[in-house]
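[Automated response] Your request has been received and processed.

Submitted sequence:
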Amino acid sequence: MLSLDALRTNAVERAVALLDRVSARRGRLPQMPEHLATGERGEEAAFFYLRRNGFTVVARRWNDGPMQGDIDLIAWQGDVLCFVEVKTRTSKEMATASSAVDRNKRKTLRRLARTYLRHLPDADDEEMRPETRFDIITVYELRGKEREVTLIPGAFGWRD
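Generated structure:
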């Protein structure tokens, strides 16, 4: 049986999807290339997946201004701070979605995560720093099938 929080999350997710469909019909959604729209849908699905599974999401598309790149989602799972990269695909015929998080992407995510951690209160006190983890969420939107969302906790670490 779903908890009250999970029911609420499901209701909000359905409401957001409905509003997106209505906005699209009325031509009020921003025009963007299909691959970017696919990525946004995947990030939204990942956000609700985390919420349904007890995570507390504290940031979406976090960036520190002039730095290149962003962290798709930052969330707490209990006492663990998770930096989450979301990869969305509409086919399984090419490489896996998670394989797109290559060495350069991991380097960018680590740099952004270090910067994020420096912004936390008591950032200079090593004993106060939270336990951290880099996760990947893969989202597959395959024609005629239900969306597949998979969390890969601890997909990579601070070093290669």
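Summary generated for your ticket: The domain at 33-156 is CATH 3.40.1350.10 (Trna Endonuclease; Chain: A, domain 1). The first helix runs from residue 4 to 25.
If you did not submit this request, please reply to this message.
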